[in-house]
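Example record

The entry below shows one chain as it appears in the dataset: sequence first, then structure tokens.
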Amino acid sequence: MRELRVKPQPGWTGKLPPAVAAFVNNKKGMAGLVILLTLVLFSILAPMLSDYNPNRRAGKPHVQPGYEHVLGTTRMGKDVFTQLAYGGRVSLAVGFGAGIAAAAIGLAVGISAGYFGGRVDDVLTFFVNVILVLPGLPLIIVIATMVEQASPTVIGLVLAATGWGWSARTIRTQTLSLRTREFVLSAELMGEKKWRIVLVEIFPNMLSFFMGGFVLGTIAAILAEAALEFIGLGDPNAVTWGTMLFWAQSNLALQSGAWWEIWPPCIAIMLTGAALVLVNFAVDEITNPQLKVGRKIGLIRKFLKRRGRSADVF
């Protein structure tokens, strides 16, 4: 049993709903959730973690990390730890906001196009195709040029409005295959209302696609927001992880050896992306049991091979 990694279920998780218990028992999902919660709490509790103002001078220029300034100071004398904590508020809000909005739009459009079909499908598919060929980053650059400086809110709205195309197309394809399944046909024969069939019969099967769209949308939004602010198209007065990189590059932090200006926002962005991917892996395994079965079959094959047994049955 140990070789096949079959573990007994802990007792206290038996009291939880099945989906929650499966997520709690998934190491990758819990690791991603812990990292995400740590980053969110770190940003929310910023005023309690630092007495400095992120927009004001807190010490001498380019002070190395130490007791007084945990992550050092910038060339302007601003505390890097304080900027990292406050910057996470805006960067995470833009990323999660744009990710949730893009995933929700993609879910609504994809299910509607796939389930209702006909003219509804033709119209929605037309808009999906338009969105897919509409480049998000150049559009934000054009808007930033028109308004001189694009705020994080403007960047988030544009990313949400242009980032739901692939999610909608994937969900539409999956809905087309589901609407001919027995449980959907049975619900229609029983006279269930269409909105109830969509919410109760089809939506639960789209959870992994929704999470996938949310994760990819959030990562893309955080990276796009950081990239746009890094090249100077965002609002330089806003404190975000992207503007931290912009000012570090403008103040020649790398050339002067001030690595502590560059690495903290980079690591924060990488940790956010890695945590979201881990959560997505866990949701995939829970909502798509075939993935888990495939891994178990590999373990069973190795188990039988070590004992000289044939595994051709698989």
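Notes for this example: The chain has a mean pLDDT of 81. The first helix runs from residue 18 to 24.
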